[in-house]
Specification:
The structure is a single chain. The chain has a domain at 18-91. It starts with 28 loop residues before the first helix and ends with a helix. The chain has three helices and no strands. Helix 1 crosses helix 2 and helix 2 (45-58) runs antiparallel to helix 3. It is 72% helix and 0% strand. By secondary structure, it is mostly helical.
């Protein structure tokens, strides 16, 4: 019988060091969020979110894991908010384009009715 392969979590890339930005799980929410925002400015949202998620998955004790999970959820909600702002802009554009197509159809009908009257 072949041995079962054990899945290990990947190692940290070493590129992102959140402690350089003042991040530590024992700090207050405001301090941690400020540090995460600074890291996002340098690396982008997705790499920081992945790094934080990996750090949460590697924790064996409950307290750091809970704090890191809360920060992952905070970053995810921040990403959802930025997506919803973009989707609102897109939906407004699509509504405007629908209105313009309706006007053009009306104008074509009015031209046809003018021609038939002559």
């Amino acid at each position: 019988m072949p041995k079962k392969k054990i899945n290990y979590l990947p190692a940290f890339s070493g590129v992102i060091e959140l402690k350089d930005y003042g991040y530590h799980y024992t700090e207050s929410d405001k301090t941690r969020h400020t540090a995460l925002n600074a890291a996002i400015k340098d690396y982008g949202l997705i790499p920081v979110l992945r790094h934080l998620n990996l750090a949460a998955n590697k924790q064996h004790t409950d307290k750091p894991k809970v704090v890191l999970r809360d920060d992952v959820n905070w970053l995810s909600s921040k990403n959802k908010l930025s997506r919803s702002k973009r989707s609102n802009k897109i939906s407004r554009r699509s509504k405007k384009s629908k209105k313009t197509t309706k006007k053009s159809k009306k104008s074509k009908k009015s031209k046809k009715s003018r021609r038939s009257k002559k």
